[in-house]
Structures are given as C-alpha cells and as structure tokens.
Amino acid sequence: MKEIYHVKRSAVMRVETHSAQDTQALAASLAPVLPAGTWIRLEGDLGAGKTTFTQGLGKALGIARAIKSPTYTIVKEYDLEGQAAPRLIHIDAYRLEEGGADTVDLASYRQQGDLVLVEWAQFIETELPTAYLDLALSYGQEVDDRVLTIQWVGGQEPEWLSQWSKEVSDHAR
C-alpha cells in the first residue's frame, strides 16, 4: 500500500501525494493550525491541484457548498462559521495578467483577518502581503501524483507552520 504522503523536510517542505483525495487530506490537516490573516500563494500549472487544495482546506473549515475556481469572477468569498478567520477568500488572478488588480480590494482582506488563497499570484505580486505561505504544486511521476513544495516567505517561519510540518512528517512515517 502506498503511503498517503512522502515528506522531505528542510527550510522548504516537499510533500508527494498520490491522488486528489490525498492532496485534499493534506490541505485539511493544515486547517486546524492556520491562523486568521494567513495568505497562501498557490502556484502551479493548469490542473496541478490549486483548486483541489483549496477544496480540501475549505471543507475542513466547514464550508459545505462547492468550491470552484473563481476563474471568471476572480474572487469568491466563503463565510467561516465558528473559525478564527471570518472568511475564506479564494482569488484566481489569472485574468488580471493584463492589469486590473486595482479593481479588486485586496487590502481589505488583509485588514479583516481573512484566510486568503491566491492562484496565479504572479499577476498581483505587488498586492501580496510581505509574509505568506508559498505552496507550489507540480505533477509527479504518475498521472494522479502531485509534488507540493511549501515554504514561508517573508521572515521567520511561524511556529504553527513548523508544528504542522512536523505533524505531516510524522504522519508520513
């Protein structure tokens, strides 16, 4: 039987998953430790699992409705009942490649303590906070395999991330 994930730890954490369900389970394991106000930059090719990761995190945070990529709407907001953060904000900045980030009030999400996940963040780079979790997804060897490269950007890695990383590593053994 294949393990759910395989982890290599250093300043950068590398996790391999073997199905969409495994990727969602990894995201769900992050939910209990993720503090309000955290931004996650999701990087990866089309179909690499950015929205799949968001779905796993959202479900673990109690979001019952379907979470789909906000490709055409750019931003989707989900209320979080009984969580530290008031909302989960899912941004797909792909359509902002030619500009227009100023039409989306990204600063308000920082001020309100929302959890924010941004796909295609390279198109709104100047709008990102100074510190965030960078999560890059890429294809693995098999069709359903994904490699997630996770690191903190912008200063000292927070204790919650170190703890989660250790828990994921312990789970993989």
TrEMBL record:
One of its GO terms (molecular function) is ATP binding. It comes from the Bacteria. InterPro entries: P-loop_NTPase, T6A_TsaE. It is found in: Cytoplasm. Keywords: ATP-binding, Cytoplasm, Hydrolase, Magnesium, Metal-binding, Nucleotide-binding, tRNA processing. GO terms for cellular component: cytoplasm. Gene3D superfamilies: P-loop containing nucleotide triphosphate hydrolases (3.40.50.300). One of its GO terms (biological process) is tRNA threonylcarbamoyladenosine modification. The keyword Mitochondrion does not apply. Belongs to the TsaE family. NCBIfam families: T6A_YjeE. This is tRNA threonylcarbamoyladenosine biosynthesis protein TsaE. It comes from Abiotrophia defectiva ATCC 49176. The lineage of its organism: Bacteria, Bacillati, Bacillota, Bacilli, Lactobacillales.
